[in-house]
Amino acid sequence: MPRTTSHPVTRRALVGLAGAATAGLLLAGCSSPGGSGGAPSGDYTAAPKDLKASITYALWDQTQVKAIQANLAGFKKEYPNISVNVDVTPYDTYFTKLQTEASSNTMPDLFWLNGPNFQLYADNGKVEPITGEIKAGAIDPKNYPSALVDLYTANGVHYGVPKDFDTIGLWYNKALFAKAGVAVPTSDWTWDDLTTAATTISSKLKGQGIYGVAAGMDGQTTYYDTIFQAGGNVISADGKKSEYASDATKKGIVFWRDLIASKGSPSVKQLTDTPADQWFVSGKAAMLIGGDWGRSEIAAAPIAKDVQVAPLPKGEQKATVIHGVSNVVAAGSRNKQAAQALQVYLASKAAQQQQGDMGAVIPAFNGTQDSFAKSMPGVDLQVFLDELAYAKPLPVSKNTAAWNALEAKYLPGVFAGTSPVDSTLEQLQTEMTAALAKG
Amino acid sequence: MSGFQRAVPRAAGRPATRRGGSGVHTDGWWPVLFVAPLLIGVAAFYLWPIVQTFWFSFTTFGVFGGQTFSGVANYVALVQDPEFYTSLGNTLIYTAIVLLGVPLAVWLAALLNTPGLRFASFYRVLFFLPYIAMPTAVALVWRLIFNGDYGVLNWFLSLVGLPGPYWVSTPGFAILAVSIVGLWSSLGFSMIVLAAGLKAIPPELYEAAELDGASPARRFRSVTVPLLTPTIFFVTVVTVISSFQLFDLLYAIMGPRNPAMPSSMSLVFYFFQAGFVDNQQGFAAAIAMAIFALIGLVTLVQFRLQRRWVADV
């Protein structure tokens, strides 16, 4: 085609093309969920050893995959013809994905469920009860901490048993304490001891950009703990009202505001740019208030040789949040028998012992925890187990996500010192109580 | 690359040269049959979901499906929600900044089109790379660059004595940071399309202009830009539409639990939040319809305005 006689790009052509592109791009990304789940029955018959099936096991923690693969190798010996596909989705998108899958009835056969989401899935018939397994004696709820068994029970029906449990502790870096000339934390520490040590370290090591303490600024690892330590509550005992504006709860919130204002902790912005665990493992924070699940990451960091752990400091009382994940079977699973076989196997003492031996988590099966405590030589991981004595369950409801979003909306401003304490907490309490009523 | 460049004008050239329909014998059902595979796909995966979304926007949705009709309640709630206006404002800011990339792309594409330029393909690949890179991967790298304490950007700023902000966690700066990445990553696509447009400008015009003594700057202004306006228009429309759909970059650079997110979110993030976090799919469907209408409106305005500046080549 000779260029001189024909101009292939005409105005009308391109305008037309732009129109077509408009239609195409405009329409993209608008889809919707639909469909309904299968009915949960709670039936269970032990799978035959030669059962042939392929199932998916969904979870969110990459650091546990190694120990889970070890579990699955043991499972393979019992059921050689069941193949298990482990599907890891990061926590931030895990429940978005799960909800979409639940709406279209394409859920993974076996999957991790946590306390905040349990009631939502159980009440909507998305997970299979374990009543059959309990009747057959394959799972015995008495073998696990009762606070966590209750977390996965709705209207008297058991849906799962915990695979592990988490408590929160005070990780610290001995080398940084020595450098700043501050005495290391003890089990008798109070809030004041923590604040004083943190501000001293921050000011002494300011030149190197090192802070005293860092925390995730979320409920479980940060403010729920201090709320309980101050003697407050997040939700009233009857589950109907928020207690954010109560005096004790307020104290647990203001603790963090003061700590950040005193420069003992990085600011909310700094903790958003660089998460708390990274401050700690890179040697830029002397203390980390975090869960036992940080063990894998901390043990692999260059600072591992200087790490030690202490119980959370005391406010009005000692307290920590306890939570544990459960393996549950999808009500709509097409391979229910195989999924239940794996659920039973993972709840067994042998499998949980192996999880603890590999230091992946604190296993929930009573009497298997000691191996976790010894999984990091020289570090007193027993602290996380001893905290069971005064542990409080993670606050949840049927619509946990709705008021978690309210916390995320109002609290960062309070911590940062940019929102007034009293009126903001009043507002949060009002809106959260309204959300609980809708649940 | 040349295949792509020619495909644009040719495929689109058809309607312009189409003959009038009267008296022409048709080919029966054959054309329909050939188009059917594509048409069925579009109908099933684009058109039907839109119809459904439109219906859902008038319903209240169960968390896992199942809906009840609730009239215009979702739309009433939408126009009363301050977050809708915040996210609309942020989307407009983002779109405006990313659009600044269009003139930049025209200039860069013209430079790359310089006859006899060495390593031209290499440069083209270099500029196009950000467009084909995964947004999440791109976002992770930029997140590090923007880091307030340890980021490269603030280190450079400190060299010239400027205190850098916490880019991704300060309201106001966060949407700016995301826009910069958006501009950077859309540049490649715009340039490739514009390069195709440049190839279609007859070299004789440049020769004639040069004989008449026009300077390179003058040739750019009086030959390149006017003849390129249809392509510029196409690029502008596509850029606006994709900017209105900002989500993945924002989500990955800032993170969903960023305290600055409520003041920095885009329309699509607002939609995502309503549908997948707050479990209000009916309300989310109303937001989706609002985004749909807004993009349609903005594009319509652009088509109206193009008569004033797009050359009829």
What CATH calls the topology of chain B is MetI-like fold
Low-confidence stretches of chain A: 1-11, 21-38
Sequence stretches where pLDDT stays below 50 over 5 or more residues of chain B:
1-20
Mind telling me which CATH architecture of the largest domain in chain A this is? Answer: 3-Layer(aba) Sandwich
Helix content of chain A: 40-55%
Protein name (chain A): Carbohydrate ABC transporter substrate-binding protein (CUT1 family)
Pfam families (chain A): SBP_bac_1 (PF01547)
Signal peptide (chain A): 1-28
InterPro entries (chain A): SBP, TAT_signal
Written account of the structure:
The complex is a heterodimer of chains A (about 450) and B (about 325). Chain A is of the alpha/beta class and about 450 residues long. Chain A has helices at about 10-25, 65-80, 90-105, 115-125, 130-135, 145-150, 175-180, 190-205, 220-230, 245-260, 270-275, 275-280, 295-300, 335-345, 350-355, 370-375, 380-385, 400-415, 420-439; strands at about 55-60, 80-90, 110-115, 155, 155-160, 165, 170-175, 210-215, 285-290, 305-310, 320, 325-330, 360-365, 390-395. In chain A, helix 9 packs across helix 10 (about 245-260) and helix 10 crosses helix 18. Chain A starts with 10 loop residues before the first helix and ends with a helix. Residues about 1-10 and about 20-40 of chain A have low confidence and may be disordered. Chain B has about 325 residues and is mainly α. In chain B, about 75% of the residues lie in helices and about 0% in strands. Chain B has helices at about 1-15, 30-55, 75-80, 80-100, 100-110, 120-130, 135-145, 150-160, 175-200, 205-210, 215-245, 250-255, 260-265, 265-275, 280-310; strands at about 60, 65-70. Chain B is globular, with a radius of gyration of 23 Å. The interface between A and B is large, with 58 and 72 residues. Chain B: Belongs to the binding-protein-dependent transport system permease family.
